[in-house]
Amino acid sequence: MAVSVDTRRLKLTNDEGTEGVLLGFRCLDCGIHVFGPATFCQGCSSSNLSPVELGKEGILYSYTIVRVPPQGWPGDVPYVLGQIELGEGPQVLAEVIDCPEDNLKNRHAGGAYASISGSRRGRVRASGLQMEAGPKLVG
Asked: How many domains does the structure of the chain reveal?
């Protein structure tokens, strides 16, 4: 079975590591969701947090083309790194796959709807981009 690169943020849900769920916390006092491990709420500073699985869909808020990857990067270069705003509110960085760079450049208005999953290497990835109302892409 594939292993997530960070089990506190991504739980893989199949043996191939191609499907997963983002993990976070929900504040029981104010309702704000936080991606990843947390000891207090980013909205109200309460420590009354409950672990949750975050949704798999969001809006591509911004993106960049990474031409010089971090040391040890296991994927193709260059690659698209996107900032995705999840439906619950937190934003995550994810590799954008199955969407050529030219398709991103042609999106003048609105945001791109993204689906979040695991990958064969246990990284967070965004795919299936479709136009939706939302923030403009920056690139």
From this structure: 2
